[in-house]
Design the sequence.
């Protein structure tokens, strides 16, 4: 018997460490010794913190939303043979959670199941067997061929064929080459790379070593966001373990191949997810993209050919080598092979990480796996691809998730963040939110991106404020075209996407803001109007007490209250506090 | 720690010379002097030592690496991780990710600003709290989230956020009375 506790960043944020402490104290006071295995995130984020009870025969009971008290109860119940505790059981070997059952896990296979700080655990799951296979019996060309057959495409956003990238890097004439792992996961709303790095760092290292062998690199660099301190820590541990086991360093496993990996922490710049900007940052410069070609595969870091691959891409590599490129290519759709991890968040019932074969529809993911929308509201749209992506409306939910179909909607696959929006989300506000982001993150090199996004943001801000003018929508479209055409890198080229897709599918919302000065989703604060229905107000005075602007007047002799509109700060405190049985505060 | 959002102009230029012990910094520079492209790593280490990047530190790095101070300053202001002003004892990092946004992070920010009487990017006069924002903390399913000195809190409501701040404040004033009473 043993326990397993999910201690990814999300598990820790949800209180995982308190659970660990409670369990350790309880066992100490009872004088029992049970192993508590610390694992990464299994992706059932909506149930964090997660605690597994594992029987000797391998049977697993997974408990969700565990706190210190519950964890002790679970321990007691199992020890006394009264387990499992049904009320907080979310999944078990006999009855796996529907959420997990409908997924196909290649990249996330080990996440939440093994101890990420133990190389032995990884080895027990066939870890490093792909590397052995490569070193013993495959030439670099054969490795590249296998990846080409698999059809693996870069999972960072652009979807370039990995095999081609490796081939170009290998064939570039040079003495030294670099392999760079892009772990600068900057898209707000995407967290799969963090989960992989925290939950299964050795898979990424194995993928990197194989990639380095294929392209002929002796040096590898992981460029990781500084916002992911736990991921950095686990990677550091994994690198030391790999070095100690002869998997990194000189003459790997006795073969004539040397490779080592270092970690470089990013310093907080979204644009550094772009490969040329990332390399500039590695060289100690401002992270500013440059013109391509020459591509990094010819002229990369310090002028050497470099292959830059995303975390999830590299984590797929060991599986492909073990099972063959054709097995991978059998999964997914015609042009988009294999599986993809999506990070679901927003107004979704069961948010977390979902790995599915490409080609299944958005509807299957959102309603089939993730249980639909919170609070039984209606789904309005899905935001895909972060600030470079777009909003896909409800009527297009039957779009399959593959690179082509998503591009056709105006959104992109991106890194795989999906933020689900319900009818209470304002699409104009969302476009403003993303423009605010890209405008701040623009590196400033290209004029159109630097100034154009600023102007677009100003227009969106005035629309949200109720000061929008006729012609603003057309102006946004015109600016969008200029910015897309005249920016060097993906950040600028795709910055207008959130605006363009919301205009395309939700033009009526823009028009309501501009013409009627109304926000249909009731989100844009300055377009809201709170009032008190005199027929429903019972004169209790709670609202007047709660109002920070002190603009709710009346109430003498049990008379109804009223709001002085000119002083109202539209904070909504009155609406929140008005007793439900009166429901006298009206928002329109 | 790491934050997104532009520092405002006055904050960037209004720094003043502070007398600092630069020996720890010199050690770092000696270690990294011959590594290619180590400027960012040196700045990161310097910030770990001093908590922020005072002008004297930037000047020292420029002098030692024989590069123009403008370049060091340019890089320190390009990356949002670097701060040119001392942070509060408690660094509040408010997540500005999409999931947090649609779940009401703006209201939490305005409530925190009201409670602490500072704006984003500022530090309270008593040096206790500084309020910053991060592009995304990657805990999207706990949205809306904030992080205080590395510990994440979520899902937040305006009330919860205020309660957390007040608890820290209360703890601080207690320790003042108990520990440093004159």
Sequence:
């Amino acid at each position: 018997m043993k326990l397993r506790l999910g201690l990814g960043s999300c598990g820790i944020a949800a209180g995982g460490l308190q659970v660990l402490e409670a369990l350790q104290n309880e066992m100490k006071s009872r004088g029992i010794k049970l192993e508590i295995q610390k694992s990464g995130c299994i992706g059932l984020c909506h149930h964090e913190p997660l605690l597994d009870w594992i029987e000797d025969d391998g049977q697993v009971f997974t408990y969700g939303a565990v706190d210190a008290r519950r964890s002790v109860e679970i321990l007691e119940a199992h020890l006394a043979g009264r387990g499992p505790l049904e009320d907080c059981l979310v999944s078990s070997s006999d009855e796996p959670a529907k959420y997990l059952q409908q997924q196909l896990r290649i990249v996330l296979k080990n996440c939440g199941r093994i101890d990420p700080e133990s190389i032995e655990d990884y080895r027990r799951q066939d870890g490093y067997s792909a590397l052995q296979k490569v070193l013993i019996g495959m030439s670099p060309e054969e490795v590249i061929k296998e990846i080409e057959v698999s059809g693996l495409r870069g999972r960072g956003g652009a979807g370039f064929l990995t095999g081609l990238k490796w081939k170009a890097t290998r064939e570039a004439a040079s003495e030294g080459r670099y392999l760079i792992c892009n772990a600068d996961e900057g898209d707000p709303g995407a967290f799969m790379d963090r989960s992989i790095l925290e939950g299964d760092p050795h898979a990424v290292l194995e993928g990197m070593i194989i990639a380095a062998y294929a392209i002929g690199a002796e040096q590898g660099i992981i460029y990781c966001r500084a916002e992911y301190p736990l991921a950095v820590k686990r990677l550091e541990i994994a690198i030391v373990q790999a070095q100690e086991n002869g998997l990194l360093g000189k003459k790997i496993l006795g073969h004539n191949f040397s490779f080592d990996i270092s970690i470089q922490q990013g310093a907080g710049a979204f644009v550094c997810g772009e490969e040329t900007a990332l390399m500039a940052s590695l060289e100690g410069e401002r992270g500013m993209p440059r013109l391509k070609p020459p591509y990094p595969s010819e002229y990369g870091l310090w002028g050497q050919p470099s292959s830059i691959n995303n975390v999830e891409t590299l984590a797929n590599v060991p599986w492909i080598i073990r099972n063959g490129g054709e097995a991978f290519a059998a999964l997914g759709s015609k042009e988009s092979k294999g599986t993809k991890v999506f990070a679901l968040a927003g107004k979704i019932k069961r948010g977390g990480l979902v790995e599915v074969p490409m080609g299944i529809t958005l509807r299957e993911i959102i309603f089939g796996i993730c249980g639909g929308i919170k609070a039984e509201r209606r789904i309005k749209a899905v935001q895909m691809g972060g600030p470079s992506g777009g909003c896909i409306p409800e009527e297009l939910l039957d779009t399959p998730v593959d690179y082509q179909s998503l591009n056709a909607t105006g959104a992109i696959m991106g890194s795989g963040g999906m933020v689900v929006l319900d009818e209470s989300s304002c699409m104009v506000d969302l476009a403003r939110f993303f423009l605010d982001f890209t405008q701040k993150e623009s590196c400033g090199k290209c004029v159109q991106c630097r100034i154009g996004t600023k102007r677009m943001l100003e227009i969106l801000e005035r629309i949200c404020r109720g000061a929008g003018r006729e012609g603003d929508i057309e102006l946004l479209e015109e600016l969008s075209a200029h910015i897309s055409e005249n920016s060097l890198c993906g950040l600028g080229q795709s910055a207008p996407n959130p605006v363009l897709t919301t205009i395309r599918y939700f033009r009526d919302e823009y028009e309501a803001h501009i013409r009627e000065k109304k926000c249909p989703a009731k989100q844009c604060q300055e377009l809201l109007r709170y009032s008190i229905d005199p027929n429903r107000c019972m004169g209790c005075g709670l609202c007047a007490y709660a109002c920070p602007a002190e603009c709710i007047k009346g109430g003498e002799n049990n008379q109804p209250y009223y709001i002085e509109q000119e002083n109202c700060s539209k904070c909504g405190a009155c609406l929140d506090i008005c007793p439900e049985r009166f429901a006298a505060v009206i928002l329109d | 720690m790491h934050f997104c959002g532009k520092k405002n102009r006055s904050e960037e230029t209004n720094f003043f010379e502070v007398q600092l012990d630069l020996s720890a910094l010199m050690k770092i520079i000696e270690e990294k002097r011959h590594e290619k492209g180590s400027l960012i790593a040196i700045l990161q280490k310097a910030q770990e030592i001093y908590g922020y990047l005072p002008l004297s530190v930037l000047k020292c790095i420029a002098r030692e690496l024989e590069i123009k101070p403008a370049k060091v300053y340019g890089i320190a202001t390009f990356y949002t991780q670097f701060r040119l002003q001392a942070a509060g004892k408690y660094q509040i990092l408010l997540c500005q990710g999409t999931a947090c946004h649609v779940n009401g992070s703006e209201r939490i920010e305005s409530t925190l600003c009201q409670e602490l009487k500072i704006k984003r990017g500022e530090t309270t006069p008593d040096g206790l709290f500084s309020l910053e924002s991060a592009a995304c903390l990657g805990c999207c399913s706990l949205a809306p989230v904030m992080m205080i000195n590395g510990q994440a809190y979520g899902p937040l409501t305006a009330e919860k956020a205020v309660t957390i701040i007040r608890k820290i404040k209360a703890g601080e004033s207690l320790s003042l009375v108990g520990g440093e009473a004159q």
